[in-house]
Amino acid sequence: MNGTKIGISKGTTLTTKKSLLCKAIIKKHPKDFCGSLEHPDVLKLCGCSRNSYYKYKREIKNSSY
């Protein structure tokens, strides 16, 4: 109402323990990063949701190149 914005501004990323753990697993295991597992297997190993998995994967690809 007074011009203040609620929530996180667009483009901001949060770093949590779970995201760091999932990103480490994603860097190591899927075939996209020279691993040996398919996406569903990495999802089970990671323990995160499908949307989070693809978000973390996209962040890794964008930061490494």
Task: Briefly say what this structure is.
With 65 residues, the protein is mainly alpha-helical. It contains 3 helices and no strands. The chain has helices at 17-28, 39-46, 50-64.
Mean pLDDT: 89
Low-confidence stretches: none
What series of H and E elements makes up the topology?
A: HHH
* Major pleated sheet: none
- The rounded distance between the terminal residues' Cα atoms is 41 Å
How many β-strands, per DSSP? Answer: 0
Supply the helix-strand structural class: mainly alpha
Description:
- The chain is mainly alpha-helical and 65 residues long.
- The protein has a domain at 17-59.
- It has 3 helices and no strands.
- α1 (17-28) packs across α3 (50-64).
- The longest helix has 15 residues, at 50-64.
- The model has no long low-confidence stretch (mean pLDDT 89).
Keyword list:
mainly alpha; 54% helix
Task: Give the topology, please.
Elements: H1 17-28, H2 39-46, H3 50-64
Helix pairs in contact: 1-3
